């Protein structure tokens, strides 16, 4: 398979080892990938991937399931999904833990769904799960023009 990988002063489209679905994983044929600040910093050599993460950039994707690990039952081959990754999204295929994969919501284009996981998961985990934001509370969002900021405002208003 091919992937976009950092080179000394540019990004290159290169052959890399094939991704395969392991235990608890879903193999996705990537249709679209989001571009995040972390990707830009990694491309500039300022943000190394965390230990154990793929050297291939890309933290969120959308595409079709092409294989599942033997223990995965929530997803089927051919299903359109989006996923949050530790890296590896700028490739033709990516293997992702099933817990980080979501069906693409009805009416959402795959290209738009690729930009959904990072902001949606970040905002939900912080506002709903950690802060337990509830009706009647006020939320101050610094940087409300960013992707995460605009999504936080929408979740808080809902």
Automatic annotation (TrEMBL):
Record-annotated membrane-spanning stretches: none
SMART domains xref list: PKS_ER
InterPro entries xref list: ADH-like_N, ER, GroES-like_sf
UniProt cross-references to Pfam families, sorted A to Z: ADH_N
Every Enoyl reductase (ER) domain range: 7-158
Assigned keywords, A-Z: NADP, Oxidoreductase
Gene Ontology MF annotations: NADPH binding; oxidoreductase activity, acting on NAD(P)H
Protein name listed in UniProt: Enoyl reductase (ER) domain-containing protein
Lineage: unclassified sequences, metagenomes, ecological metagenomes
